[in-house]
Structure formats: C-alpha cells, structure tokens
Amino acid sequence: MQKTAVEKSNDPIAAQLAPVGRETVQDRVYLELRRALIGGLFEPSQVLTIRGLADALMTSTMPVREALGRLITEKALEALPNRSVRVPPITLERMDDLLRARILIEGEAIALAATRMSPRQVSVIESMLGEWDEMRALKHKKDVDREVTLNQRFHFEIYRACGSAVLIPMIESLWLQSGPCIRVAIYAFSDAGEVDTAHFHRSIVAALSVQDPTAAREALIADISRPFNFLRNKLQSEAASKGKS
Amino acid sequence: MQKTAVEKSNDPIAAQLAPVGRETVQDRVYLELRRALIGGLFEPSQVLTIRGLADALMTSTMPVREALGRLITEKALEALPNRSVRVPPITLERMDDLLRARILIEGEAIALAATRMSPRQVSVIESMLGEWDEMRALKHKKDVDREVTLNQRFHFEIYRACGSAVLIPMIESLWLQSGPCIRVAIYAFSDAGEVDTAHFHRSIVAALSVQDPTAAREALIADISRPFNFLRNKLQSEAASKGKS
DNA sequence: TTTTTTGATTTGTGATCACACTTGTATTGA
DNA sequence: TCAATACAAGTGTGATCACAAATCAAAAAA
C-alpha cells in the first residue's frame, strides 16, 4: 500500500495525536494582517511598507509581500500607482456601497442558515449572548478588541451554518474591507453613550430559534446597518462643519 | 510646486499623451492566468506547478508564485495540503453553490444597472448583439474562445454600469470560479445541437432599454442558469450510468 | 523668501540560491 | 512475484541580492 504523508495513519497510538498543521510563515503573516485589519488596528489611508511590516513581524520581506498581494486582490488593501500600498480611505460612497453588499450577501447567508441550523447550533450562539452580558456588566471600561472579536465570532458562527463555501469567503472579504470603518464607528459609539447593542443580537437569536428566515434577515440588517448609519451621520456633520469654516 | 511622477502634467502637449501604465510582470502573469481560467483553458483538478508555469510564460518563478497566491485567495485555484496547487474539481454541490451566489449578486448588479444605464450605454451593449449574430452567421465552426470573450464583455459592460466598486470584483471572482464549469458546458452545448443562446441576451437588452430592473434580473437569471442546468443534467446522467456499470 | 536642483535614502520588483519536503523510480530483500 | 527500502528528481518556501523608481532633505539659484 502506498503511504503518503497527507493521509492519517490508522495506528491506534498515532490516532491520539492531532495532526501538526504545517502553517507557512506567509500564512501567519496573512492571518496577522487580517486580524489587524478587521480589528481596525490600521487607520484608513495609512501606507504600509513591506520592510516595515517585515521588521515588525520579525520575518524577511518575502512572506510579507506575498501576504500583501493577497490582501490587495481581496480589496482589503489598495495598491497606489506609485506601487506603495495603503489601507483604503473611507468615503461616503464606499461606505454605502459596502453596506449594500453586506446586506445583500450576509442577509442571504443568514436566511439560508435559519432554515438549516439545528437547535444545538442555535444554543451555541445563544450562549454567546450571555458572554456578551457578563462582559458589559463586569467592566465598564471599553474593551473594544474583545467586543469586536466576540461580534465576529457571533456572526460567523451563524454564517458557517449556511453551508455555502462560496458565500463565506465573500463575507470575510466584506468584513476585511469594512474593518477600518467599523473601528471608527465603535469608538464613536462609546463616546456618544452606549445604546443597547445586545438588543439586535437577541432578536437575531430569537428569529433563528424559530427558524424564521425573513425575521432573521431583517434583524441582521438592522444590526449591521447601525454602525454604518452612525458613521455616515458623523462624516456628514464633519463635512458640513468643515464646509463652513 | 512639488512634482511627483504619479500626477498628470498640465503641459498642453503632454496632455495628448496617454499615461503609459507601468504594468509589472506579476500583473501580466496574473492577468494571463485569469484569462486562461475564465476561458477554461485549464481543466478541473489539473495541478499547476510554479516552475512549469514560469517556463511556459518565459519568466522566473517569482512573479508566478505571487500570482498563484492571489488566485488562491479568490478561490480561483485551490491549495492542497501537499502545498501543490490545482484548479478546483467540479462537484454538483459546488456548482449549485456557485449558481446561487451568481444569481444573487449578478442579479442585484443588473437590477442596479437597469435604473442607471443611459440610452447611450444601452446602445453599446445592443450593438454587441449584432456582433453575436454575424459571428454565428459567418462561420458554423465553433469558435469557443471568441464566444466566451464576447459573452464576458457583454455581461461586464452591464455590470460596470451598476456603479458598485464592491460588487464588480466579487462578480469577477465568481466568474473565475465558474470558468472551468462553463467551458465544459459550452462544449457540451455545441455537441448537443445549439439552442438559441442569443435569445436570452435579447431579452436582457430589451429589459434594460425600458429600465425594468425586475425583468432584467429575471432575464439574466435565465441566461446564467442555462449552462449550469445543462451541466448538472450531464453530470447526473454520467453519475447514474457509472453507478450501473 | 521661494523655487529648483542635486544627492542620499527608502521602497518595490525580480532573480537566484539553499533548504526541506514530496513524489516517482529503481533496487534490494523476502 | 511482490513489498519495502533507498535513491534521485522535482517542488514550494524563505532569504538575500541587484536594480530601478520614488521619496525626502539639503543645498543652490532665482
């Protein structure tokens, strides 16, 4: 029998060992930059240099340039004609464009998921609601990173249940693109006095637990529209005050 | 005044000169591979090697590996655990998944375009209809490449009018992913006796010329569903006959 | 003071090399 | 004859270097 390295052995001892994933440096760089972008660690219009990132990530330039290339193709970063690369600036048109696409695709994904989620899966995301509560109750100091991460886990746990290997990468790309916007919005939120963010998530869970695709879609649209609408108002008022001065 | 290379000169003589784009080798490789994938020049499950492609494209391995990385992130190619890369195989589930996503996103794009296209723009794509006719009238020998190219130009001329910088790259990614399927379907078409492919395009143009988003969306759905449905039947009958033998 | 020019530094791109892993083919053993 | 081993060719990954283009700063000219 031909034995290749990719297939798992049937040895009863080896069966207890988890396969040691051979992640490349390039993958680690890519995932790290992804995390930073979705979390909004880079600000819009900031330019990124290959050697600078390589130094910060303690690797050579090679894995970084390939990771940057990948991020550029999914529009998470932008290639300037000078061949330098920056995180895309925020404009009103782009925000509306992103929100429309997210409503379209994430709405479809959650509608699909609503009809396919088992009660077991629903209970998993329901438990996240509790996590959210205790986080907000425990400490009032803003822990934006954890909030962003939890929000991301909540949404993608749902999207994964839609069972589409095509839609999910697209949603990831959309989150990557709207990451910088969201970060700005969240900071603006906590400045403007926190409204109940958990309310939307509760209605999403409620719709999913009764397998109602339409209600789930509408609750989701309300949820993801809120930071965009907030940010749009903020940008418009800033533009108005700047126009006067 | 600071003068950089990226900004266009105001010199009245230089104004007549088109900027000479500084396309990198990597870009050329990427575009060439894209073209090959959408055109279906690679067959499903075919593995691609960096050095092999570098030899074929007459460059070093460097631009090729970066282009491959980009194509992998947009799911146009697939990275195997062995770290070799292949064009994804066709499965029934994946086909249905792709078709659903295309109906969702391209349908939205054409509905947006229907309300925004000027009569001038409509006449441009209407003229493509004629191109199609003369191509089919002139020679009966199948010129699949030209047919695929014209079909692509026709669709993207419409999508561009939707004015969404977010949706269009997603549609390109979807075409990239469904490219290998389409090629197989087109060959199957011409074997099975050609039904009127132009009919669908005529109804699309008709809907656009009266700015009817719903009709345009439905005509488009019929158009892009046809090869998928055809291919699905073909695969199912093949699977059935293979199950018997 | 303002503008232009010159030079030094930084940056992205492509090529080449070394290394580790995989794969395919002989060779050896039973 | 067949299975296992050993060897050889092939492949992806990461590092380093050379080069051209871009950027920035200081110096020179207006």
Automatic annotation (TrEMBL), chains A, B:
Residues 29-87 form the HTH gntR-type domain. Pfam families: FCD (PF07729), GntR (PF00392). Keywords: DNA-binding, Transcription, Transcription regulation. InterPro entries: GntR_C (IPR011711), TF_FadR/GntR_C (IPR008920), Tscrpt_reg_HTH_GntR (IPR000524), WH-like_DNA-bd_sf (IPR036388), WH_DNA-bd_sf (IPR036390). It comes from the Bacteria. One of its GO terms (molecular function) is DNA binding. Residues 97-226 form the GntR C-terminal domain. Signal peptide: none annotated. This is DNA-binding GntR family transcriptional regulator. It comes from Rhizobium leucaenae. The lineage of its organism: Bacteria, Pseudomonadati, Pseudomonadota, Alphaproteobacteria, Hyphomicrobiales.
